[in-house]
């Protein structure tokens, strides 16, 4: 950098090049509830297809609860909450938030119908159609938020665009398993317990892959607030998975306690990603350094 | 951007007969005197509220950055380097402090009036879920204040940190909550006037006009400065082949962009969106198949 007479990567008086996201705490919490709602819809259909009606009903109810809470979180985050319906003025395919708004609206309608028909025992074929629709929209709902944050100029998010969807998807699977445990007898909760183990392992692997891809940009995950949240998320997730696997088969109370740990881990994982984005955006070196290297690489090739 | 699908026709075709030649700014920082008339004229004309009077100690800059309440920002950079050297070969001395000592004037004071770049491929516009951000018939990018619901997605999407949410009270005394930025004085353009900042600029450092004409003018100006031995002169944002397809408001700088707090190689984030969705698609499939496997009788032995 010295050849340009700049002050290294500090830029202009060390001020950020980017603006930090203005999203409130509702947003990382929504990343969690959206993931829970989406994955629960898939788990509910899988349970239904394998004749586990109690697990199916529990996951549907959990999913619906998440689908009801999610829009409330999103609306209260808006600078102009009374204009929430502007989200459905149009469909803009270049905006994951626009795509996701439609997915969430569809998921809410489908899971609401499925639960209503399940509880009343009416129109079984329509109920099945609603459950399928809900399960089809589930994976997009659980992962689009990862695409949303990756589709920004924030280096720690944008450069992790290939791994973030896997982090969110795996974390969502673990959440769905964990949230169903208190409402299902242990002998029918096998799929939920296995979802926790698979989800937690997947989340740890994807998170590690993300940090490796980020290289120097992974700074926020190495020290500071995002790093502490990252470590706490891993500890809670692993602890919860161990408890549900070791004790969940015998005791519903132990399973619920382990599930609570897993849910806490999934929530903190989204918090960690959210906070890392803020820290990355406010660090001028994270923006300038890679761009300067890219530019000089191009100039070197041309020369 | 052909890889990114867009909704409907794009500018200028979308305007049919109402399309106008693309206009913009050429900000020639070599003749900026740091008077801040642009900042004041912008605030006056656009009724941009006062957002606090502070003293930063950072040269003459107490505005610090562009934002919801500062649509022009004059940067002040103090360097121990000569402004120009009595030689026709500026490259030979670029960055060499030894030359600064011989020049007799060891301090140079760089000033530059920053503004929204009105990108050819604008990330803020791409990610806006409500359609509040749109491209005008002049090819500029403007927020419709009666449509924006303050979702905040454009804020971290902008690679320059230009657009931001306004927290100051609106006309009803509530927190405004919407995002704001330079409109390139859309209302003045409709009335056949040039933007307020360009009108107020006493040295014509800010030049308004049709973009093609401004680009040709900037090339001539750069050639002249290079011939006179100015140190580090370069154009920034004039190349339609850059990561945002060229700026509608571009600059002649006297040092690297990051010295002024500008990103050296900005890229519109949506360029990488197809790759992010592709990863998410695989993650969605893994989530669905993974949960199905967890419920499968083959794997679970019926529990």
Concise synopsis of the structure shown:
The complex is a heterodimer of chains A (303) and B (303). Chain A is mainly α and 303 residues long.
> What would you call the structural class of chain A?
mainly alpha
For the termini of chain A, the CA-CA separation is 18 Å
Quaternary arrangement of the chains shown?
heterodimer
What's the Cα radius of gyration of chain B?
23 Å
Principal-axis shape of chain A: globular
| Poorly predicted residue ranges of chain A | 1-7
Estimate the mean pLDDT confidence of chain A: 95
The biggest beta sheet of chain B reads: 4 strands, mixed
Secondary structure tally: strands of chain A: 0
Helix-residue proportion of chain A: over 70%
User: Main beta sheet of chain A, described?
Assistant: none
The chain-level mean pLDDT of chain B equals 90
How many distinct helices of chain A?
11
Query: Most extensive interface: pair and counts?
Result: A-B, 98 and 87 residues
Describe this structure as you would to a colleague:
The complex is a heterodimer of chains A (303) and B (303). Chain A is mostly helical and 303 residues long. Chain A has helices at residues 26-49, 53-77, 96-120, 124-150, 155-158, 164-180, 190-214, 219-222, 225-247, 252-281, 284-302. In chain A, 61% of the residues are buried. Chain B has 303 residues and is of the alpha+beta class. Helix content of chain B is 27%, strand content 15%. Chain B contains nine helices and ten strands. In chain B, the strands form four sheets. Chain B has a four-stranded mixed sheet. In chain B, β4 (133-135) and β5 (141-143) form a beta hairpin. At the A-B interface, α1, α3, α4, α6 and α7 of A face β2, α3, α4, β6 and α8 of B.
Keywords summarizing the entry:
heterodimer; A: 303 residues; mainly alpha; disordered N terminus; B: 303 residues; alpha+beta; two-stranded antiparallel ribbon; 9 helices
């Amino acid at each position: 950098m010295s050849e340009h007479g700049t002050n290294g990567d500090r830029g202009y008086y060390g001020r950020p090049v980017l603006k930090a996201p203005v999203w409130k705490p509702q947003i990382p919490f929504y990343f969690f509830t959206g993931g829970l709602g989406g994955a629960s819809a898939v788990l509910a259909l899988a349970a239904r297809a394998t004749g586990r009606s109690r697990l199916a009903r529990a996951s549907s109810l959990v999913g619906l609860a998440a689908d009801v809470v999610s829009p409330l979180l999103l609306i209260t985050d808006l600078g102009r909450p009374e204009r929430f319906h502007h989200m459905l003025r149009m469909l803009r395919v270049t905006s994951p938030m626009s795509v996701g708004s439609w997915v969430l609206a569809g998921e809410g309608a489908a899971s609401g119908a499925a639960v209503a028909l399940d509880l009343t025992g009416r129109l079984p074929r329509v109920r099945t159609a609603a459950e399928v629709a809900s399960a089809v929209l589930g994976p997009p709902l659980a992962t689009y938020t990862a695409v949303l944050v990756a589709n920004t100029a924030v280096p720690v998010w944008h450069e992790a665009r290939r791994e973030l969807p896997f982090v969110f998807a795996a974390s969502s699977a673990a959440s769905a398993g964990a949230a169903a445990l208190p409402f299902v007898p242990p002998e029918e909760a096998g799929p939920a317990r296995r979802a926790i183990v698979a989800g937690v392992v997947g989340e740890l692997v994807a998170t590690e892959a993300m940090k490796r891809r980020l290289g120097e940009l992974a700074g926020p995950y190495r020290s500071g607030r995002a790093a502490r949240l990252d470590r706490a998320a891993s500890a809670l997730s692993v602890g919860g998975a161990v408890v549900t696997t070791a004790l969940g088969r015998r005791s519903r109370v132990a399973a619920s306690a382990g599930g609570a740990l897993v849910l806490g881990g999934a929530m903190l994982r989204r918090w960690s990603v959210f906070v890392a984005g803020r820290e990355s955006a406010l660090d001028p070196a994270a923006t300038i350094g890679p761009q300067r290297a890219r530019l000089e690489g191009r100039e070197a090739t041309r020369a | 951007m052909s890889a990114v699908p867009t909704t409907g026709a794009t500018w200028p075709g979308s305007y049919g007969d109402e399309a106008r030649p693309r206009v913009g700014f050429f900000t020639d920082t070599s003749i900026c005197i740091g008077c801040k008339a642009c900042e004041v004229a912008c605030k006056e004309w656009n009724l941009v509220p006062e957002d606090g009077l502070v003293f930063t100690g950072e040269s003459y800059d107490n505005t610090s950055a562009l934002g919801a309440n500062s649509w022009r920002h004059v940067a002040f950079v103090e360097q121990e380097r000569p402004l120009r050297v009595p030689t026709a070969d500026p490259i030979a001395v670029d960055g060499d402090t030894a030359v600064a000592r011989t020049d007799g004037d060891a301090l140079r004071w760089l000033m530059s009036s920053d503004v929204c770049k009105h990108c050819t491929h604008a990330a803020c516009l791409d990610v806006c879920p409500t359609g509040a951000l749109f491209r005008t018939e002049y090819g500029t990018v403007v927020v419709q204040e009666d449509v924006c619901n303050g979702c905040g997605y454009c804020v971290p999407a902008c690679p320059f940190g230009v657009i931001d949410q306004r927290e100051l009270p609106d006309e009803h005394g509530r927190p405004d909550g919407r995002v704001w930025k330079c409109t390139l004085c859309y209302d003045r353009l409709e009335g056949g006037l040039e933007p307020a900042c360009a009108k107020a600029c006493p040295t014509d450092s800010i030049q308004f006009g049709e973009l093609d004409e401004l680009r040709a003018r900037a090339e001539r100006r750069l050639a002249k400065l290079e011939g006179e031995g100015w140190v580090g002169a370069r154009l920034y944002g004039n190349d339609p082949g850059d990561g945002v397809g060229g700026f509608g408001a571009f600059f002649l700088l006297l040092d690297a962009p990051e010295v002024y707090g500008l990103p050296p190689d900005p890229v519109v984030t949506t360029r990488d969106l197809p790759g992010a969705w592709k990863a998410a698609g695989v993650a969605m499939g893994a989530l669905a198949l993974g949960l199905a496997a967890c419920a499968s009788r083959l794997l679970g032995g019926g529990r």
